[in-house]
Amino acid sequence: MSTTAQQEIPAPVAVKTGDFVWHELRTTDAKAATDFYTYVVGWKAIGSGDPSGIPYTLLSVGDLSTAGLMQLTPEMQQGGMKPAWVGFIGVDDVDAYAKSVEKAGGKLHCAPMDIPGIGRFASTEDPQGATFLLFKGSLEYAPSRPPAGTPGTVGWNELSANDGESAWPFYSELFDWKQDSTMDMGPMGTYRIFNNGGAPVGAVMTRDHSKSPVPFWLYYFNVEDIDAAVTRIHDKKGQVCMGPHQVPGDLWIVLGNDPQGALFALVGPKKQ
Q1: I want to staple 5 with a disulfide (CB 3.0 to 4.6 A). Which of 62, 161, 190, 219 is the partner?
Q2: Strands 20-27, 64-71: pairing kind
Q3: Is residue 87 in a domain?
Q4: Angle between helices 30-40 and 226-235 (to 10 degrees)
Q5: Are residues 137 and 34 in the same domain?
């Protein structure tokens, strides 16, 4: 990833409601998970100073953080939380949006709360049960991030819903997401690609009920070479569940489980 750190760093930009502003792994073994993802994705692990009181690791491309990692406390695990990646969606008023989620049929996992010096968040789920978080930072602008497509950044945000057709209005009305295009997936219905006023950032689809027991958001991490990344997954005792599978744009994707059981995905080209 040494070449990544040398790329031009974008300036901070104003936060836009509906943008995915952060991604976080909650895991049962933070040390092992850090070892896995730094090797597989190429991230650098940096201590955060633990502003919430829970040890927290920043996963960075060069000096720019792109995701985070924390260990589930015994209380969290007793409450039913399992290893998983979650996405934070930026809003201008966490409390107001939390009420809108409930009004639209969703649920709150916890009331809105502050992370000192970082921002305010609420953990929620949509009406079909997929988890996402609302977030407003303490600053009026988003920190600098690596350019889109840089290895180590999140390249795609994908919802596998109980029913994609009825899930879409919840998000489009809540965050003003726009349909960008659609693809016919046969028996699995429509793959609905969306944007937040710019380039496409993700998609909503109906989950494969025979393989996925619950609805979920899946996040795709960019890598330089998909085949090399698959080898690294096996090296660190992860599991490849699907792929490599070619997608539009001459890219390939892989779905996997890390050693603690969290589902993740990778996207990138084939070098050979």
Answers
A1: 62
A2: parallel
A3: yes
A4: 150
A5: yes
Using alpha carbons, select from 143, 123, 126, 153 the residue that is nearest to residue 52: 123
Indicate whether 62 and 120 sit together in one domain.
yes
Please give the tally of structural domains in the chain: 2
Q: CB of 203 within 8 A of CB of 253?
A: no
- Secondary structure class of 81 (helix, strand, coil): coil
Task: Judge whether 3 lies within some domain.
Answer: no
For the entire predicted model, the pTM comes to 0.91
The answer to the question of residue 10 being in a domain is no
Query: 214 and 128, same structural domain?
Result: no
Euclidean distance between CA atoms 107 and 132, whole angstroms: 10
Helix, strand, coil distribution of the chain in percent, nearest 5: 20, 40, 40
Does residue 65 lie within any of the structural domains?
yes
Contact 224, 271 (CB under 8 A): yes
Question: Looking up tokens 């988003």, which residue turns up?
Answer: 142
Same domain for 138 and 25 = yes
> What CATH number did the domain enclosing 249 receive?
3.10.180.10
Kindly state the helix (H) or strand (E) to which residue 26 belongs, with its residue range: strand 20-27
Query: What are the φ and ψ backbone dihedral angles of 39, each rounded to 5 degrees?
Result: -75, -45
- Is the CB of residue 57 less than 8 Å from the CB of residue 47? yes
- pLDDT digit of tens for each residue in the chain (272 aa)? 233 333 444 455 567 899 999 999 999 999 999 999 999 999 999 987 665 667 899 999 988 999 999 999 899 888 888 999 999 999 999 999 999 999 999 999 989 999 888 899 999 999 999 999 999 988 766 677 888 889 999 999 999 999 999 999 999 999 999 999 999 988 778 999 999 999 999 999 998 876 778 899 999 999 999 999 999 999 999 999 998 999 988 899 999 999 999 999 999 999 87
- Residue 231's domain comprises 154-268
